[in-house]
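Sanity check. The docking grid for guanosine-5'-diphosphate depends on where the pocket ends up, so I'm generating a full predicted complex first rather than guessing from homology. Inputs follow.
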Amino acid sequence: MFDNLSLKLDRAFKTLKGTGTITEINVATTVKEIRRALIDADVNYKVAKEVTDTIKTEALGRDVLIAVSPGQLLIKITQEELTKLMGGKKEDIKISGDPSIILISGLQGSGKTTFTGKLGAHLKKQGRQVLLVACDIYRPAAIDQLKVLGEQIGVEVYAEPENKNALEIANNAIAYAKKTGKKTVVVDTAGRLAVDEVMMSEIEALKKALNPSETLFVVDSMTGQDAVNTAKTFDERLNFDGVVLTKLDGDTRGGAAISIRHVVNKPIKFISTGEKMEDLDVFHPDRMAQRILGMGDVISLVERAQQSFDEDEAKRINSKIRSNNFNFDDFLSQLEQVKKMGNIKDLLGMIPGMGKAMKGLDIDDDSFKPIEAIIRSMTPAEREQPDIIDGNRRKRLAAGSGRTIVEVNNLMKQFADMRKMMKQMNKMGGAKAAMSKML
Ligand code: GDP
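Predicted complex below; grid placement will be based on this.
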């Protein structure tokens, strides 16, 4: 996400490195480069110009503190302006009414059905009783797709595969939700390949009849400026409440994310960064601005970890680490937990500086496969007491897992290093505890 933009902005700020003061001339050069980077990232020209003009005025108006370099100051101002541009602060979806209805709109292929599932999982985690409704009457596969997702996340899906009247299905679903005590209903609607009149009238009628507390517009961020134009067209007809940007994992330009809020004046509420149900984040303009500037987004990373990690398991692992008993079973369980958190590359991108370091690197869930294969070839005794894994056993593990002996040796070395580090950490923790007792 935003890899290229981050790199170019980084380069723009570098032009200010070394200069001790902010002057009209050096700011002008940097700001011009920032503008070019934004436009290259597919940010609407007018928006890019407006924001960089503001950055320039702000930069020239501020005193440079001795502690910060002009480059750092400009990064800070750019971060503030990007945050403002993307809406300033996080905006939640409105949930009210009995049941509360959330209507999902967008073009076909934008990721509506996938998002409906993700939103279901998100709302369920908040402790809500949710019903998903399959109202995509033109694409029978969408009904099955939603049913599969519903099963996966443990949320009920209402569908009437034979019925071709979306409004009727929705009304029946609401009656069903009332009967079964579901307080939140998410309605997935039909999309088209291009904006067309029949579809617009249909969803307009749906919105009028259902009176949802929240109407979301789902848009594929990879479609660039088209995304902005489609958003405009939908907003004119639906007056939606919020935007969901999808496929930000595949989008290295990301300009739509930056300009959509400014152009339609509706907040972005969620971003989707992959096909898995976990790949959903609540949109925070400030965190996104930090990510764009390559500053990482540790808060979102921690939030994902909190949502995905099993607390009891974390406690168990912690005590194993403290007693220097961390073994391969624990390692495997940790890998599983990390994988549950979603797209690995995207997660690494949330760590400050990692986005840049990872450019061109190909990391995905499959990267863990060799390690998993080797560990799974171990006997329970070997997993529990890694020290017994001698040369002969290593050869057997390589043959058993279909990996090379070098890979097995590397894993053993990494594991040994990891245990050594854990031991040292324990010692340091012990020393700290002893110190605090003495004081
Ligand atoms: P709909 O026609 O709007 O309901 O779109 P779908 O939900 O069927 O999504 C279309 C395709 O995009 C599917 O193959 C999804 O798996 C994929 N998709 C949806 N969201 C994302 C995302 O955030 N990232 C990626 N990489 N793929 C996505």
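Relevant for the grid: Residues 106, 108-114, 142, 145, 191, 246-247, 249-250, 272-275, 279 surround guanosine-5'-diphosphate (CB under 6 Å).
Also worth noting: Confidence is low (pLDDT under 50) at residues 431-439.
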